[in-house]
């Protein structure tokens, strides 16, 4: 595959910063991963102000939606007694509302109540000092845990923004919260009057505007590490990218790989040859959730789902034998961006 540009932009812009604008490069760690921000801001906006705004949004996501933090709003809901109602903070509500809409649209291929299955397969949070244990669950145990899952069990009162704990429900926003964090950081930069930026959190990105040299924010789409094909370059301007891949977190047993993406409909890790899915969308939260949906559905069903909804997506399949043998396919919406 040759390098291809999704958004051709003019290369004739001056290679210097616009008057009254300064460039900022920031990076750090949060949410169990790394983050980076490159931003062009008015000269009156200092780097420490930008970093503080970023940290506020990341802390907000952790405080409201982290399963790793025992005192987060999400963790407290997951421990709550059956029949209790819980008023949701704004970010929690926004993500849950979007997650439930995705669950309905995907007919359960996306399910925010999948937490008990994530934990059962050894991909959930681990207490400090404890070793992670991953093994194949017994059939009876799997069915028992599946009974705790199901987005239909959740009672969301949108008028009061409160959520019913039906008993045993354990929410996990790992398939959507990181993308939402990218959106929050981008919004914080917008409120600081930044004129251009590239935000990246754990591989999910959002960009707006151009760099000081007038070039767009070029981003290489993520590919499986053993894939020896040439990469695809994307120019981000008002777009976000999220990728779901079976090579990120997995374990192997009896010669078979068990990836971290769980199919809520079967309760088991996905079992097809789809190595990764990349989605482009104006909202990183939506791109993040859609990448998970398409990974669960697999290439054939995922392509049909994406085509019917005009989703820009790239599917990379193969590599199951450890060799660099991959094939790729893309939706018409993605192909249209190449023209």
List keywords for this structure.
339 residues; alpha+beta; T-fold; 2 domains; eight-stranded antiparallel β-sheet; three-stranded antiparallel β-sheet; disordered N terminus
Description:
The chain folds into two domains: 1-16 and 213-339, ApbE-like domains (T-fold), CATH 3.10.520.10; 68-165, ApbE-like superfamily (T-fold, Orthogonal Bundle). It has helices at residues 47-65, 73-79, 90-105, 115-120, 139-146, 177-191, 284-308, 332-337; strands at residues 21-30, 33-42, 84-87, 155-157, 162-165, 196-201, 204-208, 217-220, 233-236, 239-245, 250-253, 256-259, 262-263, 268-269, 274-281, 312-318, 326-330. The chain is built from eight helices and 17 strands. An eight-stranded antiparallel beta sheet has the order 1-2-6-7-10-15-16-17. Strands 3-5-4 form a three-stranded antiparallel beta sheet, with no helix packed on it. A two-stranded antiparallel ribbon has the order 8-9. The longest helix has 25 residues, at 284-308. It is of the alpha+beta class and 339 residues long.
Outline the fold blueprint.
Blueprint: E1 21-30, E2 33-42, H1 47-65, H2 73-79, E3 84-87, H3 90-105, H4 115-120, H5 139-146, E4 155-157, E5 162-165, H6 177-191, E6 196-201, E7 204-208, E8 217-220, E9 233-236, E10 239-245, E11 250-253, E12 256-259, E13 262-263, E14 268-269, E15 274-281, H7 284-308, E16 312-318, E17 326-330, H8 332-337
Alpha-beta content class = alpha+beta
- Trace the largest sheet across and list its strands: 1-2-6-7-10-15-16-17
Helix content: 25-40%
**Whole-number average pLDDT?**
87
Q: DSSP strand (E) fraction?
A: 25-35%
CATH level-1 class of the largest domain = Alpha Beta
CATH homology group of the largest domain: ApbE-like domains
Largest sheet: 8 strands, antiparallel
Give the low-pLDDT segments.
Answer: 1-14
> How many H/I helical runs?
8
CATH architecture of the largest domain: Roll
Number of domain units:
2
Strand element count:
17
């Amino acid at each position: 595959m040759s390098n291809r540009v999704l958004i051709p932009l003019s290369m004739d812009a001056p290679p210097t910063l616009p008057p009254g604008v300064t460039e900022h490069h920031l990076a750090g760690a949060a949410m169990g991963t790394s983050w980076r921000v490159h931003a062009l801001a008015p000269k009156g906006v200092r780097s420490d102000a930008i970093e503080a705004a970023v940290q506020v949004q990341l802390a907000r996501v952790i405080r409201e939606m982290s399963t790793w933090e025992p005192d987060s709003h999400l963790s407290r809901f997951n421990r709550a007694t059956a029949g209790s109602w819980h008023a949701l903070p704004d970010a929690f509500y926004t993500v849950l509302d979007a997650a439930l809409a995705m669950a309905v649209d995907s007919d359960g291929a996306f399910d925010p109540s999948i937490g008990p299955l994530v934990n059962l397969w050894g991909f959930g949070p681990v207490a400090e000092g404890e070793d992670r244990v991953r093994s194949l669950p017994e059939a009876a145990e799997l069915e028992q845990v599946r009974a705790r899952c199901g987005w239909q069990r959740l009672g969301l009162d949108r008028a009061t923004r409160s959520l019913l704990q039906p008993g045993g429900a354990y929410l996990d926003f790992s398939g959507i919260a990181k993308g939402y964090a990218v959106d929050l950081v981008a919004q914080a930069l917008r409120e600081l009057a930044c004129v251009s930026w590239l935000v990246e959190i754990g591989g999910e990105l959002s960009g707006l505007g151009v760099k000081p040299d007038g070039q767009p924010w070029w981003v290489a789409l993520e590919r499986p590490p053993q894939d020896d094909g040439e990469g695809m370059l994307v120019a981000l301007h008002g777009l976000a990218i999220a990728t779901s891949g079976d090579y990120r977190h997995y374990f192997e047993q009896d010669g078979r790989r068990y990836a971290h993406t769980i199919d809520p409909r079967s309760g088991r890790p996905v079992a097809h040859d789809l190595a990764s899915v990349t989605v482009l969308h104006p909202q990183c939260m939506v791109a993040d959730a859609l990448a998970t949906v398409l990974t669960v559905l697999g290439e054939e069903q995922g392509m049909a789902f994406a085509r019917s909804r005009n989703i820009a997506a790239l599917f990379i399949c193969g590599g199951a034998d450890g060799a660099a043998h991959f094939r790729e396919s893309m939706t018409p919406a993605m192909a249209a961006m190449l023209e």
